[in-house]
Design brief:
There is one protein chain. The chain is mainly alpha-helical. The protein has one domain (45-213, 225-273). The protein has helices spanning 8-21, 28-38, 46-63, 65-79, 87-116, 120-138, 152-163, 172-182, 187-212, 225-253, 256-273. Helix 3 runs antiparallel to helix 9 and helix 7 runs antiparallel to helix 8. The longest helix has 30 residues, at 87-116.
Length: 274
């Protein structure tokens, strides 16, 4: 299961890392690989990943509950022809369509890409490169004429960009925000759309991992409920706080602090390889 290989301190640390990096543009998958690559920690296991992602899911749904529930309701009403389609139902369709490339490619290639990319070299290069790309997007010529409207052509670009996050170190939130900024979307809306995109992706990823667990043979009573609850609570609480921080601070100061962090993080990993 993974929990039996970790101490409570390790569980707390990994849950904090997951919560702090899932929605910040600095790559959660890359940071979660470091303890095993650098410190020799045991693999966390599928159940641990599912619990951490469930915490992140609850955090983002809780934070945007009113907006997400309204979008879903309008989409539901339009699909079943209870009401005509409107801007909210169209926006929900955009979230679904933007999720498809990463969902399909992740289902087909996730293991192949993940195993090939589990190295410090890949983490360092992707961290630096996509950090600089985020800086370029934030300072691009579209900054003066950005819009809060998300058009379908932008949805397609953001959706395919999100598929790049299958490679550890790229950062799902980072690459979707970068694509949105390059497409001329405001910082606020780029963040919002990226956070909304995380919901179906986390559900799909968590559901797939839970399906892989179906044959583990553990009974309900045998599950490590205390450790699971601890990991869930910490990852969810930290993720909620990070979402709030992003929505309040980033529109004012931009993404430069994350760019600096990514570059320093990548250079530090390269230094360890020398």
């Amino acid at each position: 299961m993974g929990f039996e290989n970790l101490s409570e301190l390790q569980i707390l640390f990994l849950a904090f890392i997951q919560g702090a990096t899932e929605f910040l543009p600095i790559s959660s998958s890359g940071h979660l690989l470091l303890p095993s690559l650098l410190l020799g920690w045991a693999d966390q296991g599928l159940l641990f990943d599912v619990v951490l992602h469930l915490g992140s899911l609850v955090a983002v749904v809780s934070y945007f509950w009113k907006e997400l529930s309204s979008l879903f309701l309008e989409w539901f009403r339009s699909v079943f022809r209870i009401d005509k389609s409107n801007e909210q139902s169209d926006f929900f369709w955009k979230i679904i369509v933007a999720t498809l490339p990463a969902g399909v490619l992740g289902f087909i290639f996730s293991d192949t890409i993940g195993n090939a990319a589990r190295s410090l070299v890949v983490l360092s290069v992707t961290s630096i490169f996509f950090g600089l790309l985020l800086f370029a997007a934030d300072k691009s010529r579209t900054a003066a004429s950005r819009t809060t409207k998300v058009f379908w052509w932008q949805v397609c670009i953001i959706g395919f960009a999100q598929a790049l996050a299958l490679v550890p170190g790229v950062s799902r939130s980072g690459v979707t925000i970068t694509a949105a900024l390059f497409c001329g979307i405001t910082r606020d809306e780029a963040l919002r759309f990226s956070f909304f995109l995380s919901v179906p992706i986390i559900i799909a990823s968590g559901g797939f991992k839970f399906w892989e667990l179906r044959g583990a043979g553990h009974t309900f009573i045998e599950l490590p409920w205390i450790q699971m609850g601890l990991a869930f609570f910490v990852s969810g609480l930290v993720a909620f706080w990070c979402i709030h921080l992003c929505m309040r601070v980033v529109p004012l100061i931009g993404f430069l602090p994350f760019v600096f962090y990514r570059v320093l993080f990548g250079l530090s990993l390269l230094f360890l390889l020398i």
